[in-house]
């Protein structure tokens, strides 16, 4: 099975980090194909960047449409997830979506910790219909870059936030942010509740969805586009819209 | 005051229709500037088209940043609204958002009628936090093109839907879809409840916001981007991301 | 256009304060008519006072019915708003409603700061269907009278509360309480997020509603009363109930 | 124990009907004192009438303050309930509130049937925080007066509505409207689910509250008013506001 | 009237405590029958214990079916409440349910204080559909046993928690936990808001329900079981399932 | 990997049906162990049966604790799911929970079709926090036994219900009821949206959870019981409660 791990920013190092985490989590027989968009934000840290990244991501996916068995959006905002799900002929999963749904399976309510502001995560989880399972959000006073530059400080901040979230009712904690991909194994031993890595959860959920082999809906807003004209965009993406 | 009426699809006729409706609604001294994106869907009728249109719309807005006093998104999906609001130095209003908030001011709960599927409207209204004010949704078995080709049939369908929505608890009805811009005056006389045209509401709300002169927030997810690197995009948009 | 600025308590100084704020916010051609009820609470600070004030306010409005183009309820509890909306032949807007809906147009979630207890504001915002947009409430340890007696202390308290609300996720802050009318310009320069004055927002929203010219609904609970007998009340109000 | 059964409209026949239903439901040792307001609507059938009735009802209650052990609001809109609860030195219960809470004790979700429009009942139940227990609302095409003039037709309409509500998930049905007081025994034998009469439920809940002897809160928005000046109103009501 | 006070754990001392509180609260003519399950947890302090206790409780109730007029579940988790309500031919009330609904009648929002963790109470209140009336939860750092061993310390903790809940918006406070049964009179004098004892509230609500004499529903998920085969259980319980 | 497929009723045929569906869905290397409780309902079709089944199920699980890698609750009510999750040292998944979460990954909102009444499913989905993703419920006028006796009629009913749910906004449909296990492949070809079989989804989600290897929480209401005394129950279950 071939799973596309699609970053939504243009930083190859993040793509590589996510791909490594995906490979570490994947089952035997699962091949991980990393991919980085042609254009868009270096890092997505705001609403507006996320919109441009959405287009870049759909273009990236379109290039791989029909050549992969599943797509993992390696971006913690689950950028353009619903659109990708409609557009692609294979299952698509967002990394934060994956972690949150896995947290539900672990039981109770979950927390989420991420770099910087948390409002857009609160909104995204509400859009996933999971507000009732969310116990708390914690924003680290650090950037994704700090995780590379000073991993010890970031780890300390993470442990503090995880502990507080657990004490305030989180039965598990989602590590939000592609820059944290692969950190769960290191952090878990000292954490009082399970930690959820969106990349690991996402790869495993995709393996499950591919195995289930659900058809695409023929009705509703997730049915594949057919005969839609979209101009001035990449030919592969335009072809998907036409349904040809 | 200069208000940009920004279509999010590439159909000039829709832009013109919305601009005409905007001019008809605008107060004295308000200048309407219509604009159409350089690329993207001919008509937005699905989740995926809406994502591409989001990028096209931000590019279009960036070109006009600093040259207009307010922006009306002339697209019933309120495409990229929050991003545009973050990005632009002036107020931005979405046409469906405008109609829904005006419906709140008219009192009670509102319904929405549109062409085709209604799920994405249900979601959008939920994202606006207004689900509690939504009494019902009605999807016409017709396309925006039908409104041009067979306006009488569409008017009959609209009247039926409006009547049913009112009977089931809608105190007002939002006409959803840019293709319905300007139709309210024709439909209103036979409707039992007020009809809300997003273009008319949006222009008037923008006049109001421009008059209030609220500053942009310095904190939070609507603060203007600063120093953000976004590659492979239109220079005007890239400049807005850099904050220069 | 003539806008009635109707206080719901009997303190003329508050009426005058609100009228001044309304005039400062109004567009050219808008005439502000201040009005104070004949009976009722000197200041509304509890549930029971608000009920008596509701009757007093409807009486006050009835006296002006047909003589004004719009009504702004200059009372932060949006006292009797839905009833006034049903009863009057012109648009009616509540000052807190106005500020909250304008906050929605500014983007994200809003906070509200007021004198004393906040529970009734929490309830009122829930009745407006806007709980999902409310990020936080702050009650100042001060009375409306303190705002007159010691404005510097109240300003300090306000700044502290606004800063905390913004830090905890409010993208804008509503100044709740008629006694704060007109204070936004003084407080805004030091505030990290936009401040919303219900009087200013309300006047502008009324100008917009008057311009739109929406009809009254013929169906539902906001349709004008017709043939209703209400005894022992002011003749003007009784006449409105009879629909004559 | 003396329970005031306070109508909120001025129709003595309704007061008498409710008083009879209250006496039929009351325990031994409970004395029912019927009371009708001095002014206000003959029948409350709209938002605006409900506001005037709120004042009239508070005045009526104030006259009896200290002379009764509990107050039942014999009005299906639970008019001014929270204000009365704050103001009075004894427990106060609304008839629809009473029926809905009793329905909760019967298990599952409840429906409500009433004369005419249902939107204001939907809102009232939401204000009681009970929307999640509400399975459906049914509005009869009849008026309270019809219940007197043509009780057989109204009984047929009621049975039809009760049956539909039960089939659609209501585990019990609230009879909404003071004009239905005392009808439950006649309707119950043919109904598939329990029927709840707000007067009967309310009297019994008041007996329970009086027996419990809960103190009034010293904090918050239900604490008794103290030192509040309210002018131009009945001396008994003004005295309650002053707390003297 | 005979009311079964059914403990769900096997600790006779708790049964006795609850029975004493029930007798203290009961009206004249109400007989309290205490009962303790044959098997199950000594104390219920987790999700899994609650499930076993549910079965033990239904068995206990079945033995008394037809011999009592009402059942009070003397267990703060409202264990198996809905099932007992379906199964028994008489009214059944849970002690926390009873306290929460009585809190609603006292007005505004309530808090709940209990021993240890609060998450399962948050969930139970949500299942009762009362989340919107819940202002806060407080978990004491103490066990039910501490209430016996060191009542003064527990009283101090309780007072602190009650004060904080009231300051943060609770208009009343539910004492959650059977081990607190009967403590309200001692704690109330120093509390700023009414305290609700589930046993006292439950007994009085049962008296009210018995007086109302609501029939069991013939439709829906609370209709009595009929012809259901359940093997390997107590004969009395099996007989109830068969409906014989 | 060994997965226990635990029925919660005592009908071996249902256990066998679910085990077959589980084997058909399982990945290579996954061993399916079917198990049936020692006591309890023949079929669970009411609230009270579900409580007894909860105890029977925990006993069944306890016997297998430590001998299996994951547990699938093969009962559509997700009976005792949270308790089992707390109690067992391995992941536990409920079949309806599994189908609903997988439906979320398929996108949009889901419907659920089952035999008979739907209220308890509505409640269960609310407890899972997924009400916002639920588009509709359909109850077939048929029993699980009919699915065996007259599969063609049941298939016709199912197709009708699935079609209606899809037309009313369900992007996928959960087949609720263990008696429908394994039917999805037969029904899918004629269905307009994906059909979700809880057994298939559950097995695959368990494989994923086992692969992830999340630790049990050390804090909160899902932490394993320790030192809990539960009397009169199966020794294996008692031992789990003691944590020994």
TrEMBL record, chains A, B, C, D, E, F:
Coiled coil: none annotated. This is Hydantoin racemase. It comes from the Bacteria. InterPro entries: Asp/Glu/hydantoin_racemase, Hydantoin_racemase-like, Iso_Racemase_Enz_sf. Belongs to the HyuE racemase family. It comes from Belnapia arida. Gene3D superfamilies: 3.40.50.12500. PANTHER family: PROTEIN DCG1. Pfam families: Asp_Glu_race (PF01177).
């Amino acid at each position: 099975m071939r799973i596309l791990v699609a970053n939504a920013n243009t930083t190859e190092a993040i793509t590589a980090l996510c791909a490594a985490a995906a490979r570490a989590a994947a089952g035997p027989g699962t091949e991980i194909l990393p991919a980085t968009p042609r254009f868009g934000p270096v890092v997505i840290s705001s609403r507006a960047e996320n919109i441009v990244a959405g287009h870049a991501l759909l273009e990236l996916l379109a290039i791989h449409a029909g050549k992969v068995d599943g797509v993992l959006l390696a971006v913690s905002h689950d950028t353009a997830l619903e659109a990708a799900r409609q557009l692609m002929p294979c299952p698509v999963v967002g990394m934060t979506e994956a972690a949150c749904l896995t947290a539900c399976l672990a039981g109770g309510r979950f927390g989420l910790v991420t770099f910087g502001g948390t409002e857009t995560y609160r909104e995204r989880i509400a859009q996933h219909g999971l507000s009732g399972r969310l116990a708390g959000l914690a924003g680290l006073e650090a950037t994704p870059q700090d995780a590379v530059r000073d991993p010890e400080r970031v780890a300390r901040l993470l442990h503090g936030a995880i502990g507080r979230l657990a004490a305030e009712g989180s039965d598990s904690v989602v590590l939000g942010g592609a820059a944290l991909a692969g950190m769960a194994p290191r952090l878990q031993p000292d954490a009082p509740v399970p930690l959820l890595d969106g990349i690991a959860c996402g790869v495993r959920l995709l393996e499950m969805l591919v195995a289930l082999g659900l058809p695409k809906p023929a009705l509703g807003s997730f049915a594949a586009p057919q005969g839609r004209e979209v101009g001035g965009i990449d030919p592969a993406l335009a072809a998907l819209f036409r349904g040809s």
